[in-house]
Amino acid sequence: MMIFQDWHTHSSLCRHAIGNLEDYVKSAINKNLNLIGFSAHFPYEFLKSIENIPYEAYAMKLEDLYGYIREAERLKKKYENQIAIRIGFEIDYIKSQENSYKKYIKDHVKKLDYIIGSIHNLETEFGLFPFDDENFLFLYSRFDKIDEIFELYYETLKSMVESKMFEFDIIGHFDLPKKFNKKPINRRKISKLIDEILEIVKEKQIIIELNSSGLRKPVKEQYPSTEILKIMKSKEIPTLLGSDAHNPREIGYKFKEMVLILKELGFNKLANLEKRKMSFIQI
What is the CA radius of gyration of the chain? Predict the structure, then answer.
């Protein structure tokens, strides 16, 4: 029997999902998962130069941090005989402010099992660009070609994995710029950037999640692509599963298909995290 664990989930706390934390736990139990990870979007309001984006709709409020941890710990104890619960955050990496979150996480970091590092916004000459928000697709015309967005994204991702100040355990949705089924023209150049990042990831033993939410998006493909997964396998880069659920019904989304892809590529284990220490489970 396959063991399924969902490490990337959200709730109404992030203000763009539905259902409370307990709704997600119940869904995970009903779907026979043996573990669910809470990865609430870390707040934005302490960041600078965010006036041009609707950050209130992107993440939880600072005032909700303590309540989130308390509720997660309560559920962890309540359901300890039915499912394992891990507590984490998904934190946005913004290069010019890569250290600003630490002041606000320091009271909670000892209670965390993991942190997902993600990039949803790119720093540009016209301000922050929420490239994965369909309401900002009009800004794509500000770039001469789509490759510029991919290059900026991967250059930012490279800075994230090289950073000595931004602490995280998992890279979220590795090739997110393809979300709206937009693909780079000069794939060789982008592939070179990806390979440089994967070398650093290998050296630093960072996990890259296999995120099934891309199958619900216009691109109709998981993050990362099968091509990138092949390179990850050759470099022995660990992975784990995340649905990026924003609705309790999306828990464990297409996980059987994801595991089949992994097995076909030669993966035989998935990463597991507790108090930010990595172990593995067999698949």
Answer: 18
> What is the distance between the alpha carbons of residues 66 and 107, in angstroms, rounded to a whole number?
9
Distance CA 99, CA 68 (A): 22
User: Is there a contact between 215 and 221 (Cβ–Cβ < 8 Å)?
Assistant: yes
Task: Extract the residue ranges of the chain whose pLDDT is less than 50.
Answer: none
Tell me the fold of 5-282. Answer: TIM Barrel (3.20.20)
For residue 3, the model assigns a pLDDT of 86
Round to whole Å and give the CA distance between 16 and 180.
19
Q: Where are the domains of the chain?
A: 5-282
Contacts of 191 (CB under 8 A, 6+ apart): none
pTM: 0.98
pLDDT at position 1 is 63
Give per-residue pLDDT as tens, 146-201.
999 999 999 999 999 999 999 999 999 999 999 999 999 999 999 999 999 999 99
- 73 with 25: CB under 8 angstroms? no
